[in-house]
Amino acid sequence: MLEQKFRHHYQKIFIAPILKMGCKFSPTAITVLSGIVGLLVIPAVYFHYPWLAIIILAFSGYLDTLDGSVARACDNSNQLGGALDIVMDRVVESAVIFALYLVDPSRGIACFLMLFANLICITSFLVVGIFVEQNSNKSFFYHNGLIERAEAFIFYALMIILPGLFTPLAYAYIVLVLLSAFLHLRFFHFWQKDNA
Known about the structure:
This protein has helices at 2-19, 27-39, 41-46, 50-73, 79-102, 108-134, 149-161, 166-194.
């Protein structure tokens, strides 16, 4: 939701200046780099450098928003890039959750449920996108969730810098992610009825 609201201003301030440099960067390389950078959250959290971890997470997120814009600007969009982007997103999310567990193993159940919620949500998102694509002229249908990447990163950042609030933040995150999954499926239910 936040991404939709602020995307235009974000694009203008943080993405457009890079695009003016031309097609010097491979969008695929940017995507892979976003995943590699995201993995660095693990040692940063484990060795108790929370603000460094947040900077790393923010930079990884920035690269994740940059790759698609570069691909479109340079007419270099392809399905492999899209698939790789989805995989790298999951790599980063899993790395953050693993780091949160590693620094305090007593969080095991909450971290497992966060991964569980992520798995259910991304599955519902992809399944709805695929089925809508098969039954319409859309190349891929994107249904917005209640909590998306920007909101997830805010939750992760708060969990990192406010360890005392980890448990309520984690369970709020789990509920919102599962609710997003439900809303994806609910949307598809009504879409299917309307297009029967």
